[in-house]
């Protein structure tokens, strides 16, 4: 009985998110899978707004994978400095670009296993590239927003992103995995803040066990 009740609660959460954020999509500006890969790596510990500001000029300066693969690392670090952790990000992006050229004929791979071989790419980044870059859904990208909201909504008790993803994949229909990621991110940005969430304005308050308790 409890399982059936929880199933209906999850269905209600999905229904509400669909109505509240019907147009939710990837907030990182990109024109192709490679730009999305770079932007997603840059987005670690950085806002999408800041990343979009940086990539606007970055992609003009380095329009192709080859351009970044051949970039001077110190110069590239300065180009992305404001995204934070710029040395490590620059190292990974340049190395990933070289690997894409050498091992994948200059094209961003389309499988999870292949993407995970690229420097700086974990499941979150791979899921975003596959879903928003190629329209391929194999999992759910778990960023800070998805992690926080999944826990508050009682969809998982885990803290590790990979384990959270598994929990979500077990209870969310596969056809909703891509939408759920974007919708939870939007809700996290607009309502369910890390501090002082707007529970009084939350459309999910009736199905959220954390409503009014954060």
Compile the SSE list and pairings.
Blueprint: H1 2-20, H2 33-42, H3 48-61, H4 65-69, H5 73-80, H6 86-103, H7 112-115, H8 123-134, H9 144-152, H10 161-171, H11 177-190
Provide structural commentary.
The protein is mostly helical. The protein is built from eleven helices and no strands. The chain has helices spanning 2-20, 33-42, 48-61, 65-69, 73-80, 86-103, 112-115, 123-134, 144-152, 161-171, 177-190. The mean pLDDT is 96.
The main β sheet shows up as: none
How many beta-strand elements? 0
Distance between the termini: 28 Å
What general outline do the C-alpha atoms trace? elongated
Please tell me the overall pLDDT.
96
The low-pLDDT segments are none
Radius of gyration: 18 Å
Helix content bin = 55-70%
Percentage of residues in strands: under 5%
Spell the H/E element sequence. Answer: HHHHHHHHHHH
Question: Could you say which structural class the secondary elements and strand pairing correspond to?
Answer: mainly alpha
As an assembly, this protein is single chain
Task: Quickly count the helices.
Answer: 11
Question: Gist?
Answer:
The chain is mainly α. It is 58% helix and 0% strand.
Descriptive key words:
single chain, 58% helix, mainly alpha, 11 helices, 0% strand, 214 residues, elongated
């Amino acid at each position: 009985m409890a399982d059936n009740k929880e199933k209906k609660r999850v269905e209600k959460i999905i229904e509400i998110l669909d109505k509240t954020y019907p147009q939710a999509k990837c907030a990182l500006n990109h024109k192709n899978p490679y730009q999305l890969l770079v932007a997603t790596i840059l987005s670690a510990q950085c806002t999408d707004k800041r990343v979009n500001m940086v990539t606007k000029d970055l992609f003009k300066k380095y329009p192709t994978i080859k351009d970044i693969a051949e970039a001077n690392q110190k110069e590239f670090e300065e180009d992305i400095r404001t995204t934070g952790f710029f040395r490590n990000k620059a190292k990974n992006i340049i190395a990933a670009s070289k690997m894409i050229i050498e091992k994948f004929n200059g094209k961003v791979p389309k499988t999870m296993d292949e993407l995970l071989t690229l420097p700086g790419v974990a499941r979150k980044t791979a899921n975003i590239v596959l879903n928003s870059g190629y329209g391929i859904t194999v999992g759910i990208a778990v960023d800070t927003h998805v992690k926080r909201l999944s826990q508050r909504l009682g969809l998982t008790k885990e803290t590790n992103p990979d384990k959270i993803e598994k929990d979500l994949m077990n209870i969310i229909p596969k056809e909703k995995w891509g939408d759920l990621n974007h919708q939870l991110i939007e809700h996290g940005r607009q309502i369910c803040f890390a501090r002082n969430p707007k529970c009084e304005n939350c459309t999910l308050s009736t199905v959220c066990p954390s409503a009014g308790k954060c």
